[in-house]
Amino acid sequence: MKFRPFALNFFVFCKIPSAYLSGVRVKAVSKERVVVTVRHRWINQNPFKSMYWATQGMASELATGILLMQEIAASGEKISLLVTEQKGTFKKKAKGTVTFSADKTPALCEGLQKTIATGEGQQVVLHAEGVDESGAVVSVFEYQWSVKRKEQMF
Predict the structure, then answer these.
(1) How confident is the model at residue 69, as a pLDDT?
(2) Model pTM?
(3) Smallest Cα–Cα separation from 123: which of 53, 62, 68?
(4) Which of 82, 18, 86, 8 is nearest to 52 (CA)?
(5) Domains, the chain, with CATH or none
(6) N or C, which end of the chain is more exposed by having fewer CB within 10 Å?
(7) 88-100 tens-digit pLDDT
(8) Counting beta carbons within 10 angstroms of the beta carbon of residue 135, is it exposed (0 to 12), middle (13 to 18) or buried (19 or more)?
(9) In 10 A of CB 80, how many CB atoms?
């Protein structure tokens, strides 16, 4: 897969249609940072007229997951991913367009290198922060990803 916004948005459309229908879109991808946006709309609102927490979770999880997917692709190894723990903190109502960004960390690289070297599963913790159009932080998510090298059959 090419790690460009258009290709990743097509991936979301095909593999995570609920995120696509909710308006989650990849806006920018680099080796160091991923930016995902979602606009508050009728389809992703809660009864309190702000963005539903699960929509924010989809956008933030996607941002952290793309960072891992890029590193795995660069390694050339077959590695499985699974979110094993998630924590979200909500600071204010999410309205308008919310931008989630996730940055590459040394722990990400170390965890992947260790699982490649040993074959043992590792835990990698990544963060994504959601900021509204005014620059205010609306939510912060933390994901614990389990990474493990897939066993070769032959």
Answers:
(1) 95
(2) 0.93
(3) 68
(4) 18
(5) 5-149 (3.10.129.10)
(6) C
(7) 999 999 999 999 9
(8) exposed
(9) 13
Classified as helix, coil or strand, 96 is coil
Is residue 43 exposed (0-12), middle (13-18) or buried (19+ Cβ within 10 Å)? exposed
Per-residue confidence (pLDDT) for residue 154, from 0 to 100: 56
Percentage of residues in the chain having pLDDT higher than 70:
98
Q: What's the mean pLDDT in 52-81?
A: 95
Strands (E), 2-153: 25-29, 33-39, 79-90, 97-103, 122-131, 137-149
CA atoms within 13 A on the CB side of 83: 17
Count of CA atoms in the C-beta half-sphere (13 A) of 96:
12
- Averaged over 11-17, what is the pLDDT? 96
